[in-house]
Input
Amino acid sequence: MTDRLDVVVGRPGRDPAGWDGPARLLTAYHLGTQAEKGEAVADAAALPARYRAEVSDPRAAFHDDVVLLARSGSIAVGCVVITAAVEGRSEIKRLWTDPEFRGHGVASRLMGAALTHAEQGGACTVRLSVWKWRTGAIALYERLGFAVVEPWDARDELVCMERTVRVGAGCRPADGDGRYRSASVVRPR
Output
């Protein structure tokens, strides 16, 4: 990794102009993902409807979630989405760093902020899914304490991972014996 950038992580804000950064980053994320899956599309208008909604109006698409944005000066360089805790579990989605800013700790700082938000929001565990060819992202998640778990999403080549962020009061055990949910480790296919 090269020198760390001076990056600030926070929410985009109420001003619609503040959502231009997330829209641009999410567009790059989805176009890149489609290409990696061998289903490249020419532009955002050709994305599947679900993803078009995210890039055309991320504020509306993620109205129940928290979008965190990394900025270097006035430039949006990375984003991540964290869902509200449901039954003690949050999910991290759409982690993306602009390729020009990779290798400077942006994704690590976004993940740190997302994990802190999840814990403060009442999550006991955080889960995420990642395509198996994104080995750099998987390595980052493993460094941050995530473990591969049984998939909850049936799509081929998707790796599901989970990590505990908090135990104790408010965290529901998986069963009646008082033990907290723990991830059983499985290897990617």
Notes: The radius of gyration is 17 Å. Residues 174-189 have pLDDT under 50 and may be disordered. Strands lie at 8-10, 66-72, 75-82, 89-97, 125-131, 147-148, 158-164.
